């Protein structure tokens, strides 16, 4: 297959980890007989420095023209002024919006060799293998009215609005069911239907969608009890689907189970096949340029890219198996706590060396 992949390494450790993911994709292309063409573009702080905007027009055009986008991370202390008009994360929000990416997928599958890194007891982490599907473009973060006003008595009032339409809910819940069909066939729809009207609509639509997928079981769970179940019974989840803000919070909670930020990938998907893939971590300015960042989350994001945007499931599995074999062999970067850590480049090479 021929595919065009736009790389946006971004800031901090972004370029270091994206380099390793690109080498991995090159190795996959050579092994499986594909041709991947890469182009590299500015996004985030580096784009602000060069063009005064976090998402330059040519980056967006390249993303639209590509089959998939692989992102490192954006941001850092240099651009951290909260009063600044132009901020690195605007680039991320804008590219997701412009590409119509409404679903964020975060798989969580802690590796047994790293169970000790999890804050949970090993027996609570054993067998954890779920994916969180978070709605990305609606809900409280985007609803209007939104804003602040000073009232006549001098007090202040702020408002955010949680809005969802049935079609926004249907498309994301459907995606969750499609994923569950390829997994253990259980969807947990997370809401706050005892309090929120938007959640009651969410629940109604989830039930309607469930009729389209008789082979998949649907359960509803309130977000507060879901947060507890992630700690007490995480292996019981398969696919969790939820609205934007609940997903924002639950995905961070879920990420902790794996023990290191450097290991986890993510995908943002829309109506077509094109997607944006990135590790869940940030630009890690504290270790940027030291060559010690863990590239695993970005390499696993490249595996998601192969699976979801290019339909190359066997190739994706090959990367995932190579990562597992590398961790099984006790080859880790420094964040995973080892006496003789591998550098970023060595870790990338160790994983590539196990590609079968
Ligand atoms: P962070 O994820 O960058 O770092 C948190 C800690 O985890 C740091 O100690 C860091 O060294 C470590 N870490 C992260 N990734 C690692 C890796 N691959 N290998 C080894 N260690 C790793 O979060 P932060 O410090 O809160 O944010 C730093 C910057 O990143 C901020 O400007 C923030 O806005 C930005 N950020 C960007 C994204 C994104 O681009 N999607 C996400 C989160 C944070």
Indicate the CATH architecture of the largest domain.
3-Layer(aba) Sandwich
Strand percent estimate: 15-25%
Mean of all residue-level pLDDT scores: 96
- What is the global morphology? globular
Number of helices: 12
Task: Provide the CATH top-level class of the largest domain.
Answer: Alpha Beta
Walk me through this protein's architecture.
The chain is of the alpha/beta class and 356 residues long. The protein folds into two domains: 1-106 and 268-356, Isopropylmalate Dehydrogenase (3-Layer(aba) Sandwich); 119-258, Isopropylmalate Dehydrogenase (3-Layer(aba) Sandwich), CATH 3.40.718.10. 40% of the residues lie in helices and 21% in strands. It contains twelve helices and twelve strands. A ten-stranded mixed sheet has the order 2-1-3-12-11-4-5-10-8-9, sandwiched between helices. Strands 6-7 form a two-stranded antiparallel sheet. β1 (2-10), α1 (14-32) and β2 (35-40) form a beta-alpha-beta unit. The longest helix is centred in the N-terminal third of the chain and has 19 residues, at 14-32. The chain is globular. It binds nicotinamide-adenine-dinucleotide. The site of nicotinamide-adenine-dinucleotide has 21 residues, from loops.
């Amino acid at each position: 297959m021929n595919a065009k992949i736009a790389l946006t390494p971004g800031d901090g450790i972004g370029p270091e980890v994206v380099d390793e993911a690109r080498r991995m994709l090159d190795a996959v292309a050579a092994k499986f007989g594909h041709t991947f063409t890469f182009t590299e573009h500015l996004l985030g702080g580096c784009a602000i420095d060069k063009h005064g905007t976090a998402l330059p027009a040519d980056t967006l055009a390249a993303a639209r023209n590509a089959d998939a986008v692989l992102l490192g991370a954006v941001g850092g202390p240099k651009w951290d002024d909260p009063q600044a008009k132009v901020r690195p994360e605007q680039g991320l929000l804008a590219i997701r919006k412009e590409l119509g990416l409404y679903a964020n997928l975060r798989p969580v599958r802690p590796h047994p060799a790293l169970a000790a890194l999890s804050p949970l007891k090993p027996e609570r982490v054993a067998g954890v293998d779920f994916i969180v599907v978070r709605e990305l473009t609606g809900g409280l973060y985007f609803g209007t009215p939104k804003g602040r006003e000073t009232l006549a008595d001098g007090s202040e009032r702020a408002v955010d609005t949680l809005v969802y339409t049935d079609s926004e809910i249907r498309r994301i819940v459907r995606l969750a069911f499609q994923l569950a069909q390829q997994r253990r066939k259980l969807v947990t729809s997370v809401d706050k239907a005892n309090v929120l009207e938007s959640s009651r609509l969410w629940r109604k639509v989830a039930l309607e969608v469930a009729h389209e997928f008789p082979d998949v079981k649907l359960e509803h769970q309130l977000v507060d009890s879901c947060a507890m179940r992630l700690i007490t019974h995480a292996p019981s989840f398969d696919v969790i689907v939820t609205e934007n803000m609940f997903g924002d919070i639950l995905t961070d909670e879920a990420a902790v189970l794996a023990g290191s930020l450097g290991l986890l990938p993510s995908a943002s998907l829309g109506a077509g096949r094109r997607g944006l893939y990135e590790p869940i971590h940030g630009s890690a300015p504290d270790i940027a340029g030291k060559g010690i960042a863990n590239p695993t989350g970005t390499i696993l994001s490249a595996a998601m890219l192969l699976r979801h945007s290019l339909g190359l499931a066997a190739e994706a599995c090959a990367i995932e198996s190579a990562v597992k074999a590398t961790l099984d062999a006790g080859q880790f970067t420094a964040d995973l706590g080892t006496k003789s850590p591998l550098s970023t480049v060595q870790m990338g090479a160790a994983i590539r060396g196990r590609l079968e």
